C-alpha cells in the first residue's frame, strides 16, 4: 500500500543523477518524491513500479476533448510515452539518464469521459547499453485495449 503522492514538482537534480531509476520511481509511488507536474495537469499518476515494468492510472476529462467530442489522441500518447519511458527509467543505474528517441502509437478505440478510469502499462522489451525499447498498452476497466505503442530510448551518462 502506498502513501499519498507528494505534490507535483520537479525532482531535485541530485536525486535524478545519483540514484537508480527503480528506487527513484518507487519513492514517487510512495509519496517520498513528487510526481511530475504534467501528471497532475493531465489527471494521471504512477501507481506501480517494478524492474522494467510500470503502471500509470488516470481518468479522461471533458477538458481533454478534441472538436470531434472524444479525448484528444495526445492524452493517450502522453500516458503511453510516460509508461514506456518510465519502464526504461526503472532499469537505469545511478548516473544514467535517458531520453525518448521515438515512439509509435495506435489508437484503436475512442476515449471519452464515459470510458472511466484507465490503466496504462509500460514494459521493457530490451535494455542495452545505449538503446532501450519498450511497449505499452492503455486499457479500460474491462481490460479492452484503447491504444498501444512502442518506444525507443537513448541511454547516456547523467550530467
CATH superfamily label: Hotdog Thioesterase
Query: Would you tell me the overall average pLDDT?
Result: 94
Strand content: 35-45%
Low-confidence stretches: none
> Class by helix and strand content?
alpha+beta
What is the helix/strand order? HHHEEHEEEE
Report the strand count: 6
Shape, principal axes of CA atoms: globular
Instruction: Just give the CATH class.
Output: Alpha Beta
Which CATH-level-2 architecture?
A: Roll
Distance between the termini: 34 Å
- The count of domains is 1
CATH topology: Thiol Ester Dehydrase, Chain A
Give the % helix.
10-25%
Rg over CA atoms, rounded to whole Å, is 15 Å
Structure, explained:
The chain has 159 residues and is of the alpha+beta class. The chain contains four helices and six strands, in the order H-H-H-E-E-H-E-E-E-E. It has helices at 13-18, 21-29, 37-41, 73-89; strands at 44-50, 53-58, 96-107, 118-127, 131-139, 145-157. The chain has a six-stranded antiparallel β-sheet with strand order 1-2-4-5-6-3. The radius of gyration is 15 Å and the shape is globular. The mean pLDDT is 94.
Amino acid at each position: 500500500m502506498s502513501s499519498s503522492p507528494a505534490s507535483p514538482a520537479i525532482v531535485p537534480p541530485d536525486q535524478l543523477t545519483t540514484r537508480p531509476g527503480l528506487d527513484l520511481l518507487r519513492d514517487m509511488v510512495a509519496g517520498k518524491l513528487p510526481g511530475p507536474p504534467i501528471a497532475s495537469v493531465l489527471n494521471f499518476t504512477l501507481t506501480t513500479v517494478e524492474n522494467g515494468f510500470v503502471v500509470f492510472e488516470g481518468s479522461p476529462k471533458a477538458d481533454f476533448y478534441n472538436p470531434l467530442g472524444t479525448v484528444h489522441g495526445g492524452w493517450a500518447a502522453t500516458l503511453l510515452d510516460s509508461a514506456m519511458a518510465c519502464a526504461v527509467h526503472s532499469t537505469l543505474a545511478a548516473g544514467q539518464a535517458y531520453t525518448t528517441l521515438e515512439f509509435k502509437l495506435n489508437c484503436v478505440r475512442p476515449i471519452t469521459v464515459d470510458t472511466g478510469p484507465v490503466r496504462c502499462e509500460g514494459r521493457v522489451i530490451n535494455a542495452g547499453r545505449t538503446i532501450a525499447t519498450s511497449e505499452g498498452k492503455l486499457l479500460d476497466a474491462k481490460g479492452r485495449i484503447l491504444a498501444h505503442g512502442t518506444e525507443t530510448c537513448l541511454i547516456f551518462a547523467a550530467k
